[in-house]
Amino acid sequence: MFAHLRRLALGLLLALAQPLAAHEVLPSIGDFQQDGDTLAFDIRTNLEGFVAGIDLTLTADTNAAPEAASYDSLRALPPAALESRFRSFWPRMAPRVFVRIDGVDQPLTLLGVSVPEVGDVNLPRASTISFTAPVPAGAKTVQVGWAAPFGALVIRQNGVDKPYDGYLEAGAMSDPIALGGGDAMSPAQAFASYIPIGFDHIVPKGLDHILFVLGLFFLSTQLRPLLWQVSAFTIAHTVTLGLGALGYVAVPASIVEPVIAASIVFVAVENILTQGLSRWRPVVVFCFGLLHGLGFASVLGEIGLPEGNFFPALIGFNVGVELGQLAVITAAFLLVGLWFRKKPWYRARISVPASGAIALVGAWWFVERIMG
User: TM spans, by residue (predicted)?
Assistant: First the structure.
């Protein structure tokens, strides 16, 4: 039975060994502003996912989607070719993008498509689509949203005092937004709205962070070593998340992502070589936590923070990250620790094989991220 469990665990972990950072689904970011009798929208997004027909509610990683091959071929297209493909797709997309003014859906007119040059095909390409919607005379409010398969959407209002800034889950519509401004979130609303964003970045999207936390979990059957490690990791990534979000620290993803993979390998291999908490392990975990925090900051930079509520939103995001880590540890404890951690064979049959599988995945990611 235990041999079967080990094979199953290894198979599941190896199934995760894909270029996750390159294919992670990020929310689209939309800016809008009223210009006379029209609302002008600029949506920064990954056009390849739309054109390929990927349902972004069903996957956190485009590499796992049935349309992955089509998506990858689109990623390698030059700008003019991808723009042409998207313009052909727009008539099917437009009816599923909703600009509802005073309760009435408005027709959309595509103005332009801006596609960057092909860079690293292992990284998402952020293109921008621009469109307008008419504003009837005397209109007061607008609601914005789109169909769930297009994924999450960040909406930011410009050109008014106290502008709206909100994160919409896939398929959600915004609350009515005053066209004249005044709908900025309160600090409490900003804090609460960014908690699920932080949580979502760990569960289900942060598979590399999940494996790192599992590596901490499998070191020992005792609670104290886990608390020391998690505390060191939390303090470290909180520091660099804040500094990165404020713009004081910036490290290229080409450095951060391989080091995160290396951190997974380190903690997993040390689990195999030692049975307890060494005096240097919390220090090493702290150092790796600094790099993980920069990874969190990079994602938060993609999403953006509301100018008027920068710190409440930042704190809310960090709380969401901590809740995500706690969820991972709780799940591991309920599935494994609660039943087996007191058994004399726990280390040999569960901890060491699981750590070995985690190390293999981390090593694969490290090579893949170094090689690009």
Answer: 255-273, 280-301, 313-338, 350-367
Contacts of 240 (CB under 8 A, 6+ apart): 249, 289, 290, 291, 292, 293, 294, 296, 297
Closest CA to 166 of 54, 308, 50: 308
CA distances from 358 to 45, 52, 106, 122, 252 (A): 32, 32, 50, 23, 25
What pTM value is reported for the model? 0.76
Consecutive H or E run containing 145: strand 141-146
- State the alpha helices, DSSP H only, in the chain: 2-15, 20-23, 47-52, 68-75, 79-93, 187-202, 207-217, 223-246, 253-273, 281-303, 310-332, 338-340, 346, 352-371
| Bond into 204 cis (ω within 30) | yes
Same domain, 112 and 197: no
Give per-residue pLDDT as tens, 164-221: 988 898 899 999 999 999 988 889 988 998 998 889 888 877 888 899 999 998 887 6
My answer on whether 33 and 128 are in the same domain is: yes
- Last residue in a domain, options 184, 209, 232: 184
- 306 domain-assigned: yes
Contact 292, 260 (CB under 8 A): yes
| pLDDT 10s digits, 254-290 | 888 899 999 999 999 999 998 777 878 888 899 999 9
Length of the chain: 372
